[in-house]
Design brief:
The protein is of the alpha/beta class and about 230 residues long. It is built from eight helices and ten strands. The two termini are about 35 Å apart.
């Protein structure tokens, strides 16, 4: 379907939603974008919206952050919970939900060069290890690459995957180490976590949407995303 046709149909839907809202009967459709590893209690918000407004249909789309941002521009996604850097936020309305540093995951039996008694490592030492990383377009990959650049350290990726569980399995079998947000690393308690002494990769989780007034159904969901 051509973009202009899709925009026209969506505009008609939004007009009907506005009329229903005036009548006190909130209906419509909300398409939510998110990326793997970023949940931020989104399921609670979706359940609360369904309980409050059962007439609102919610669709969920999980994709890489670059694809989600493109969908926001095209109007095929109404709002998203994603990790964006400052440049990626341009042209969007954003609200920060959380900021988180990333950690290095490794099996307990692996000896990490340069690791301190406090469990800290340096990016320069990590660069010499087999690294499990995620495919380009992932927010984690972008944050990791950015941190190595900021530290002036060259690095390469040994294993490139598009699944968090797959990354953890590679680490669990001592095929490499992996950098990921601490909240995600906590899902794998059998793996050790190491903090970075400085230049730690980090990401900011935010709810984003196109600029302008949010349609009634979108505004209702936004109230539940905290």
């Amino acid at each position: 379907m051509p973009h202009h046709v899709g925009h026209g149909l969506r505009a008609a839907e939004l007009a009907r939603e506005a009329v229903d809202a005036v009548r006190g009967q909130l209906r419509g459709r909300v398409t939510v974008g998110t990326m793997q590893g970023v949940w931020a209690g989104l399921h609670h918000a979706l359940a609360a919206l369904r309980a409050e407004h059962p007439g609102v249909v919610v669709q969920l789309r999980q994709a890489a952050v670059a694809d989600i941002r493109q969908a926001l521009r095209e109007g095929t996604v109404d709002l998203a919970v994603v990790a964006l850097d400052r440049q990626q936020q341009r042209g969007l309305t954003t609200r920060l939900l959380s900021r988180e540093d990333m950690v290095l995951l490794a099996v307990p039996r692996r000896v990490l060069p340069g690791a301190t008694p406090k469990g800290e490592v340096r990016l320069a030492d990590v660069a010499r290890l087999p690294l499990v990383d995620f495919t380009p377009g992932w927010a984690i990959r972008y944050a990791v690459d950015r941190a190595f650049r900021a530290a002036g350290v060259d690095h390469s990726t040994t294993f490139e995957v598009n699944d968090i569980v797959a990354a953890a399995e590679l680490v669990r079998n001592d095929l490499g180490v992996c950098i990921m947000p601490k909240s995600i690393g906590n899902r794998f308690p059998d793996l050790l976590q190491y903090r970075f002494d400085r230049h730690a990769p980090n990401w900011k989780i935010m709810v984003v949407r196109p600029p302008g007034e949010a349609p009634p159904a979108v505004a209702a969901l936004l109230r539940h995303i905290t």
